[in-house]
Amino acid sequence: MKLARHLLGYAPVKLVAALCSFGGIYFYTRLLSADEYGRYALMFSVMALIHTLSLTWVEASVYRFSGTAKAQGKMPDHFRNALTLIVRALGFTLVLVGILLAMTWNKPEYLLFVPLIALHLPFNAVVKTAFEAHRANQQVKRYMMAATSKLLIGFIVGVLLAWKIGLGALSPIAGLLTGSALLLLFEGRWLLKQAEGGVSNKATHQAWLAYGIPTAIALGLDMLLSSADRFLIVYYLDEAAVGGYAAGYGIADKTVLMLCAWVAMAGSPLLMAAYENGGKSPARDQSGSLIKTLLLVAMPAAMGLAFVATPLANVMIGENVRAQAIEVIPWIAVAGLLNGLLIHYYSESFQLAHRTRTRAYLMAVPVVMNIALNVLLIPMFDIMGAVYATVASYLTAVILLGIVGRQYVALQFPLMDIARIGLACACMWPAIQLVPEIGGWSELFAKVLAGALVYGVVVFALNAGGARNLVQKVLKKRA
Questions:
Q1: Phi/psi at 403 (5° precision)
Q2: What is the tally of structural domains in the chain?
Q3: Residues 41, 45, 46, 49, Cα dihedral to 10°
Q4: Which residue range forms the structural domain that includes residue 45?
Q5: Contact at 8 Å (CB) between 266 and 66?
Q6: What does DSSP assign to residue 170?
Q7: DSSP-assigned letter for residue 440
Q8: Residue 451 domain-assigned?
Q9: N or C: which end of the chain has fewer CB within 10 A?
Q10: Which whole number is the average pLDDT over 396-410?
Q11: Residues ≥6 apart with Cβ < 8 Å to 306
């Protein structure tokens, strides 16, 4: 029941994130040319990679060590350490931005992104650090208000800049910068207030480095796994091909991954609390609720996206990149589910046991595999070669981390529940196929509604993932 309450609390954030993600694809694939959308996708990936490698380790440590600091009554010290380490981490960020500047110096269409990225990274680091503190302390309402504000500001400003000003490929990044800058005024002030009277110390810095740096490397490798193919696509093909690939990827992967993140946002703090308070056994018990809920939400989303790829692309994606996106969506929906399991479930074994360095080593395997497969398959199958490489690499990563992680914390893998959820997903297919091809939003909504209704009925009838039990508990509590 506590997980359900947290899911409801975080739902507005994920609904707004979905709106902004889908809305961004809808508007930007129409307002930008295929080449411009491809350039934006490439530079966004670069910006995200720089943030992950240089700054994410502080955010991850703020989240992971909040419980310990709170129990010891050292929250001001906790936040003072966070602010100190953000400033130091920005030194490495500056080095990476300098490398980016040098690499784009003779490419003016890419060089224009660098000042925006250089401003966005420090602003976003402070804001995201505050967000992680809210999440770790289960301050659901504050997190919801701040995160939704940042998302909406970035989306609205970015679209307006592309539509009214004609800023082109720079528009989405400029929108994100605006959102981070405005939220910095509030969240930065909050962090400073929390750090009042706190003392920064080297022992804590070393503990955070030992935990956070391997986490950042592992996440960076995961990001390479999901974005290295874009650079190989532009090398073997062109920017327009990257645009089509990124548009389909954005709809499929982001949708499933957002749902996984929503469940993890609510469930991961409960899993961490179970481990901190009782050790491996309570954590294993709590993991059952997390994986069942994650699959109940994410598996039908992935299968549903695959089933409605054509009508979805017809209404959501601009004509310039639509044909390639239709090919990509079904496969990347599956890859998105695997990615969600990788990041938001199987990685928890390593996070809880402070074995993030081991996770980083393991992630190198699918990353190297992905690059090799892309080099081999893109010349043979164009962008579909990148798609096949992505699915194979994520599957390898899930299997590898799932097997090795069991020696640290043996997370549950409830086969019967997974089989029931899979059966419910399969039942969506005939219902969706019965909906006539009337075109437009009407066809898409009708197919989504038909699939969702059938899935809901079958899940309830089979009690897949304990869905019927949960509904009965909620109804009984309200009665």
A1: -75, -50
A2: 1
A3: 170
A4: 2-413
A5: no
A6: G
A7: H
A8: no
A9: C
A10: 92
A11: 329, 330, 331, 333, 334
User: Is the model more confident about 354 or about 474?
Assistant: 354
pLDDT at 78 over 90: yes
Q: Are the C-beta atoms of 240 and 35 separated by less than 8 Å? A: yes
Alpha carbon dihedral 87, 89, 93, 96, in 10-degree steps, equals 150
pLDDT tier at 449, thresholds 50, 70, 90: very high
Residue 411 CA to residue 408 CA, distance in Å, equals 9
Instruction: With respect to residue 77, please indicate whether it lies within any of the assigned structural domains.
Output: yes
Whole-number Cα distances in Å, 367 to 50, 55, 56, 236, 316: 17, 21, 19, 19, 30
Report pLDDT digits (tens) over 156-169: 999 999 999 999 99
Query: Quick one: pLDDT at residue 222?
Result: 82
Judged against a pLDDT cut of 70, whether residue 474 lies above it is answered with no
CA angle 389, 394, 395 (to 5 degrees): 100
Residue 198 dihedral angles phi and psi, to the nearest 5°: -80, 160
In a domain, 119, yes or no: yes
Residue with tokens 């998105």: 336
Provide the Cα torsion 109, 371, 97, 85; round to 10°: 150
Q: Does residue 369 sit within a domain?
A: yes
CA separation for the pair 444, 432 (Å, rounded): 10
DSSP state for residue 351 in the 8-state scheme: H
What is the reported pLDDT for 3? 59
Q: How many CB atoms lie within 10 A of CB 476?
A: 8
**Spatial separation of the C-alpha atoms in residues 204 and 44, rounded to whole Å:** 32
Residue 475 has pLDDT above 80, yes or no: no
List the structure tokens of 15.
């609904």
Predicted local distance difference test score (pLDDT) of residue 469: 78
d(CA 68, CA 204): 12
Q: How far apart are CA 100 and CA 48, in angstroms?
A: 13
Residue found by looking up tokens 């993890």 in the block: 264
Q: Which residues contact 60 (CB under 8 A, 6 or more apart)?
A: 132, 211, 212, 215, 216, 219
Q: How far apart are CA 378 and CA 392, in angstroms?
A: 14
The string of pLDDT tens digits covering residues 184-232 is: 999 999 999 999 999 998 989 999 998 888 888 888 888 888 889 999 9
Q: Are 125 and 183 in contact (CB under 8 A)?
A: no
Non-local (6+) Cβ contacts of 336 within 8 A are: 252, 253, 254, 255, 256, 257, 302
Rg, Å, the chain Cα set: 22
